[in-house]
Specification:
- This protein has helices at 30-33, 36-53, 60-86, 94-105, 112-124, 139-148, 162-165, 168-175, 177-197, 200-223, 244-249, 256-261, 277-287, 299-319, 335-343, 369-373, 381-384, 393-400, 413-424; strands at 91-92, 291-292, 332-334, 348-351, 354-357, 403-408, 427-428, 434-435.
- The chain has 455 residues and is mainly alpha-helical.
- Strand 4 and strand 5 (354-357) form a beta hairpin.
- It starts with 29 loop residues before the first helix and ends in a 20-residue tail after the last strand.
- It binds zinc ion (ZN) (2 copies).
C-alpha cells in the first residue's frame, strides 16, 4: 500500500533540469531534497496535534468516536484506495464508491488517482528503482522517507490508470482533493463531536489530527513492515512478507506475501482465523448489495504456489546433505580387481554393482562385525536386501556415503545396467542435484531377495 498526503509533481518546464533527487545531498543543499509540503502534513501537523492534546482533555465519547472514525478512514484506504481502485479486486456501486472516496480522503494520504498509480508501480516494479517505496532503500525510506524526501517522478515505473480516469468518482475526488481532505479529515470529525456532545476542540484534535496521524502511520506500515517482517509462504524472490502484527496494525493488509502473489484477490487473509477486517467489510458490503464481482483465486492456484515454495526450501535443505558421490562420477572397477583388493584387507563390499568401502564402519555395524565381514569381496546385493537382513532406508542412505566405485563385467552387469537406468530416471531439483526419495537408493531392491540359506 502506498500513501501520500500530497504530491508535488514538477511541471513540464522543470524536467529539463537535473532533478534534485538525482543530485548528491550536501550540507548546503539538503533542504532542497526535502519535500516540505509532505513534511508538514506527515510530521508537522501530528506534532502540533500532540502539543494541543496537552491542553485539551480527552473525553470518553470523543475517544470512542476517534477510534470509530479511525476504522472508517482506514477502511477507506484499504477497502477503497487499495483493493477497489488500485487492484480492482471487486466492483462497488456508486454510493459505496462515493463513501470510500470520502472516508479515504479523510485519511489524508493523497488522492485515489495518485495513490493507486504509485501502488500499481509498487506491484509492477517491487524492490527495484522504479518501485516508489522500495524497501531495498531501507525500512525508514519505505515507511516515510519516500514521502518526506523529494523523488524524481520520472523514475517511478509507468502504469496504466485509464480505468481510474474513467471513474467519475475518482476524477471528482482528484479535482476536489483539498476540499475533501479538509472536510473529511478535520471538519467532519470535529462536527460530530461538537454537535454530538459539545467537544469541538477535542473532536478536532483527537478524531481529527491525531487520528489522521495514526491512520497514516498504520497504512505506511504496509510499505515498510509488510516488506520486512514475517514469512514468505508463496514466493521468497521478492521482499513481501506475511505477519499477524502487520495485519493487526493495517486492518488486515499484513498477509502481504499472499497479496503480492495474488493482488487481484479481494482477500489478504485466506484462512478464516486470520485477521482481515477489510475482507470482512467487503464481504458484508456484498451481502448488503453494495459490492459485487468479488475476485478470488482458485485454491488450486494458491496451493501450487505454496507447494513450490516449500519445494524450494526442501531443495535448499537437501543440497546441504551428503548423498555420496554420484554414480556417474565413480571410477569403474573390474570385478577381479574388486575381489583382489578385498582379499588384501580393504573393507570393500559390492551391493547392486556399487562398491562401498566400509573399512571404518565394520566395528559400528549394528548387525555385528561377522555379518558385514562375510560380505566383503562378494556380491552382497541379496544379503543386504533380505537374504540376511532387509536393510532400512536409513541403512541404504548411509551406505551411499561410502561409495568408492562401480563394477564392470561379470555377473554384476545386469544389476549395474538397471542401476544406470534408474540413475537416468532420477528427478533433479532446480540446482541440478539428484532427488533420492526414501526407498529409492540404487542399492535398494524393490522386493526382499530370499536366499536358500536365509533364516
Ligand atoms: Zn497492493
Ligand atoms: Zn507491497
Amino acid at each position: 500500500m502506498s500513501s501520500k498526503p500530497d504530491a508535488s509533481r514538477p511541471r513540464a518546464a522543470d524536467t529539463k533540469k537535473v532533478h534534485i533527487a538525482d543530485t548528491q545531498m550536501t550540507r548546503q543543499n539538503w533542504y532542497k531534497h526535502v519535500n516540505w509540503l509532505n513534511v508538514t502534513f506527515i510530521i508537522g501537523v501530528p506534532i502540533s496535534g500532540c502539543i494541543q492534546a496537552f491542553f485539551v482533555p480527552l473525553q470518553l465519547k470523543t475517544a470512542i468516536w476517534a477510534v470509530i472514525y479511525y476504522f472508517f478512514t482506514g477502511l477507506g484506504i484499504t477497502a477503497g484506495y487499495h483493493r477497489l481502485w488500485a487492484h480492482c479486486s471487486y466492483s462497488a456501486t456508486l454510493p459505496m464508491r462515493i463513501w470510500l472516496a470520502l472516508v479515504g480522503g479523510g485519511a489524508v494520504e493523497g488522492s485515489i488517482r495518485w495513490w493507486a498509480r504509485d501502488h500499481r508501480a509498487h506491484h509492477r516494479y517491487t524492490d527495484t528503482d522504479k518501485d516508489p517505496y522500495s524497501v531495498r532503500k531501507g525500512l525508514l525510506y519505505s515507511h516515510l522517507g519516500w514521502m518526506v524526501m523529494k523523488q524524481n517522478p520520472k523514475r517511478i515505473g509507468r502504469t496504466d490508470i485509464t480505468d481510474l480516469n474513467e471513474d467519475p468518482v475518482v476524477v471528482w475526488q482528484h479535482r476536489n482533493y483539498i476540499k475533501v481532505v479538509v472536510t473529511m479529515g478535520l471538519i467532519v470529525p470535529m462536527l460530530v463531536a461538537g454537535l454530538g456532545w459539545g467537544d469541538w476542540y477535542g473532536g478536532f484534535v483527537y478524531a481529527g489530527i491525531l487520528r489522521i496521524f495514526f491512520v497514516q502511520q498504520a497504512t505506511f506500515c504496509v510499505n515498510s513492515l509488510a516488506h520486512w517482517l514475517g514469512d514468505q509462504p508463496f514466493d521468497d524472490r521478492n521482499s513481501p512478507r506475511d505477519h499477524i502484527i502487520t495485519a493487526l496494525v493495517t486492518l488486515g493488509e499484513g498477509y502481504h506475501n499472499f497479496h503480492h502473489e495474488f493482488p487481484s484477490d479481494y482477500r489478504n487473509a485466506i484462512e478464516w482465523h486470520q485477521y482481515d477486517p477489510t475482507k470482512w467489510t467487503i464481504w458484508t458490503c456484498k451481502q448488503l448489495g453494495l459490492a459485487y464481482d468479488l475476485k478470488q483465486f482458485r485454491s488450486n492456484e494458491i496451493e501450487k504456489g505454496r507447494v513450490q515454495q516449500l519445494q524450494k526450501k526442501i531443495d535448499q535443505k537437501r543440497a546441504k546433505l551428503d548423498w555420496g558421490t554420484p554414480l556417474d562420477q565413480l571410477p569403474v572397477m573390474e570385478w577381479d580387481d574388486y575381489v583382489e583388493q578385498a582379499k588384501n584387507g580393504r573393507g570393500l563390499i559390492s551391493i547392486a554393482g556399487v562398491v562401498h568401502d566400509v573399512t571404518d564402519f565394520i566395528k559400528d555395524h549394528p548387525g555385528g562385525k561377522a555379518m558385514i565381514k562375510s560380505g566383503l569381496g562378494k556380491d552382497a546385493t541379496a544379503m543386504f536386501n533380505g537374504g540376511v537382513y532387509y536393510h532400512s532406508n536409513g541403512a541404504h542412505n548411509l551406505l551411499s556415503t561410502m561409495r568408492v566405485g562401480v563394477i564392470r563385467g561379470g555377473g554384476e552387469v545386469e544389476i549395474w545396467k538397471r542401476a544406470q537406468k534408474e540413475n537416468s530416471e532420477y528427478v533433479r531439483d532446480e540446482t541440478g542435484q539428484r532427488i533420492i526419495r526414501a526407498g529409492q537408493q540404487v542399492t535398494k531392491m524393490p522386493e526382499p531377495i530370499p536366499t536358500a540359506d536365509a533364516a
